[in-house]
Amino acid sequence: MSLLLAIAIFFQASGQDDLEKLKKKVADLETEVEKMMEQKLDQAETGPAKTETANAFNPSITVFMNAAMRIDSAAVEAAGHDHGGGGSDPDFIDDRFWFRGGELDFRGSVDAYVDAVLLLGIHQESNGEFGTHIEEGYGILKQIPILEAAPLGMKLKIGRYRAPLGSMNKLHQHDWPWTTAPLAVSTYLGSEGGTFFESGFAMEGLGLMMQLPSFEGTSLDFELHAARAGEIAVTEEAEDPSNPAGVGKLNFFTELGEGNDLSIGLSGYFEEPGNHVIVADFLYRWRPTGKFQSLVFGGEWHFVNRNIPGEEETSPNGGFLFLQYQLNWNVYLGARWDHVQGLEEVDEETDVYSAYVSYYTTEFFRMRLGYEHRASDHEEEDGLNSVFMEFNFVFGSHPAEPWWVNR
Amino acid sequence: MNMMFLLLGLIFSAPGTESKDKLRVVTTLQVYRDVVEQIGGDLVSVEALVHPRRDPHYIPANPLMQRKAAEADLFIETGRSLELWTSNLQRAWTDKNRLIASRGCSVKELPKEISREWGDIHPGGNPHVWLDPFNMKRIGRNVAEALAALDPENKMVYFGNLKRFDRGIDVAMFGKKLVEEEGGSLLWRKLRLGKLDAYLEEEEIEKEVGGWLRKARVLRGQKVVSYHKGWVYLADRFGFDIVDELEAKPGIEPSAQDRDEVVEVMKREGIKVILNGVMYPTRAADYVAEKTGAKVIVIPIDVGGIDGTDTYRKLIDTILQKMVDVVK
């Protein structure tokens, strides 16, 4: 009897062992299944693998379009252009709607060391015709394979690009905080017909950009370029300009506390014999945290010497100051004062007082209403009042805005 | 001659070439600074570029940021088009000196189609990945791997610190006792597969749940409204439901009509909580709260966004506590 009991207990124990083993096996299997499910979840949650096609390496493309309407108190003649008419058939630009132009912005990495940018501009000129040209096209060599880190973070820029003169020359029409270009930029650096049209100096050449040692919390940037001479407004009438011209800029940047920063720059263009444009600029920005408000206060002053063989040497100067206050997410108010002396007739001075309100739906679309009053020694410009209505469109891949733009 | 020595001295004392004994790390967000500090310890010096009360989408990259990025041995950003402004830092990046922190993280709201018509959407999905603690563990691993690749001699230190970092998040998530008994890996797996509750019940250890999971129990199923689509990761992980956003389209300030539509939704659904990030004005949220009797909770998205959030764990803890205080 006791033997039978012992056998029964043995078989029961053995059955329990098997059951335990079986339970463990099921638990292990369950864990394995869960791990596989987790792996599948990982794959699903991290997103589908990108399809690598040749298109993936295409440059990012952004399209800019700008249109503006102007209403003027008197006839306005385009500055500096007669389009071969010998001055007898000037272009009048007042009281009409202008599709001022479009730009195609292509940018991307060439390889691990070089980035490239091409800006193709289609701009309306003062005679109403459209001209297509390369606004900018350049490569930036950020590093070379034999140097792990270039001294001073040095970079090489090659091609056609906006010269680092002041801070606003780098801005294209669609990025201006105003409807019209600053008078000093248009007069001394270059324009396609005056401040209402694309203005500024795009140089062709190459240069080095570097960051010099500076104090904690500051940045000291230096650029030095060699440019093809005779392209800037100051010397564009020279018959055989001496090559190359030199362009340089030293820029100091510091944060003055959270949300406050200041940039001070000194730049210059030098071309033989004795031509130069020296620009001093500053930009102060205030952006408090947690608010859609900001303030920008900046300005530039240009000191020019113009020495074209066969013409009288002149040394005009001029510049501008501007203030912009952001009221809320969408609305910006601003004002600018310009003053210039004539490039050839230094005694002929012009002052422009302007004010504007900009409304942004987003960073991609902007409307702007502006008013401008001119006081000038040029009789035809003196007392001119103009009202502008501007529309700006940005679509495409949306490159990051440059730091000196507050929208 | 003296000038030449001065110039050479300047060049070779320049930031890019100076001798160093610590890895220099620059991050976009403060949350990554915190991770690097925990995993890199004394072997790294780290600085974040973005103030924690600013919207990381809209940071104008200035020359000082450019200088810091140029000096860094490692630059860390979220990726997924959150910090577009880093493209202006103009540095030659390699896999070694730039880390996309969100690599390998679970991603939500991957758009099937893309158009600006729908606002400021991100082609790579919702980029606020760090607000899911599980993603934070992956970010920690990414950081440890990046530091070890730059400094292989100290690989063991970085991975030792990663283990502590991981355990810290596990304990913060599930409570110390449960992690000690069950292990973090198993708990995360069950949680992610939606089997944690059943498992805890089966093992009769529901009462041992601690940490954020315990704290956030009261939030489960709660319906809330948020200003921006910044909280989807947190909501999914802790089980609350973001029914609507004040921004009808991401990145576009709500109009009066948008606000009134949210008022209707909140009244219909009986929603009493509005989440508003510290970087956004509360004007729209205050208006809606006044019309519905809801409470506006101003919460940070980044470490240091408000007092008492100087680490990642304190950040999540503070966000949950603020929500729990209102919901209770």
Write up what this structure looks like.
The complex is a heterodimer of chains A (407) and B (328). A 16-stranded antiparallel beta barrel of chain A has the order 1-2-3-4-5-6-7-8-9-10-11-12-13-14-15-16. Chain A is mainly β and 407 residues long. Chain A starts with a helix and ends in an 11-residue tail after the last strand. Chain A is built from 2 helices and 16 strands. Chain A is elongated and about 130 Å long. Chain A has 2 domains: 1-46; 62-396, Porin, CATH 2.40.160.10. Chain B is of the alpha/beta class. Chain B folds into 3 domains: 21-168, Rossmann fold, CATH 3.40.50.1980; 176-209, no CATH class; 215-327, 3-Layer(aba) Sandwich (Rossmann fold). Helix content of chain B is 44%, strand content 11%. Chain B has helices at 2-12, 30-40, 63-71, 133-150, 155-174, 176-182, 184-192, 196-202, 211-215, 232-238, 256-269, 283-292, 312-327; strands at 23-27, 44-48, 74-77, 98-100, 223-226, 241-245, 273-277, 295-299. In chain B, strands 2-1-3-4 form a 4-stranded parallel sheet, sandwiched between helices. Chain B has a 4-stranded parallel sheet with strand order 6-5-7-8, sandwiched between helices. In chain B, β7 (273-277), α12 and β8 (295-299) form a beta-alpha-beta unit. In chain B, α2 (30-40) packs across α4. Classes of the chains: A mainly beta (407), B alpha/beta (328).
